[in-house]
Amino acid sequence: DTIKTKAELASITDIPLFGVIPNISARKGENAKKDLFAYSQPKSTVSEACRGIRTALSYSSQKQENRVYLVTTAGPKEGKTTTSLLLAQNAAALGKSVLLMECDLRRRTFRSYFAEKPGGGLLSVLSEAMSFDEAVRHDGATGLDVRMGEETKTNAADGFSSRRFEACLTEMRGRYDMVVIDTPPVLAVPDARVIAPLVDAVLYCVRWNVTHRELVRNGLQMFS
Distance between CA atoms of 116 and 60, rounded to whole angstroms? Predict the structure, then answer.
């Protein structure tokens, strides 16, 4: 019942397939970022795969600049965060200005790759407790600007539904060549569906030989 070929995925979704990223493994903690950065080097097979996806995305609509992408999956542990990080790093390596936003506020896995900036993150910006520049950290190794998620006891989807979040994305379009937004799985919580109308494209990740066909269909149906 799982997806094993590109043709199979294309047949059940009737949606363009932008590419395939080879399976990679990374260690936890301090070594996680080093591993991922190594995979993003220009001549690696992973980097080539990401380059192909980025190129396909750039031609996916009439707009050619200030693109905002949402990355999600049907369920957990399907590679959406890895894809977000690699896609953002790939663009930054070309000299593009890239903002990487963590909107999966429940898992907050960016902490495995980047040091948290004291004082707050995305929710502090939405509540106007912090300015955009105060909540963003620049990562010198990758060239990325990173806006980390922030622990919350409130419903994250409410924050993403706010005018403040929409205004924030509008401002980011004017400041960056690319914005990559990592969101929770679409079948778990409504956050990705709330954000989707505000972006230029949704990149939907499916893990080889793990994701069930019915879950893929259900997730895409929720976006429809």
Answer: 34
**What's at 149, amino acid-wise?**
G
Q: For residue 215, what are the contacts with CB-CB under 8 A and spacing of at least 6?
A: 74, 75, 187
Task: Please list the residues that pair with 139 across neighbouring strands.
Answer: 144
Per-residue pLDDT reduced to its tens digit, 69-121: 999 999 999 999 999 999 999 999 889 999 999 999 888 888 888 877 666 77
Largest CA distance in the chain: 48
Q: Is 102:62 a contact under the CB 8 Å cutoff?
A: no
What residues have CB less than 8 Å from 174, skipping those under 6 apart? 66
The predicted model scores a pTM of 0.92
Torsion of CA 33, 146, 180, 222, to 10 degrees: 90
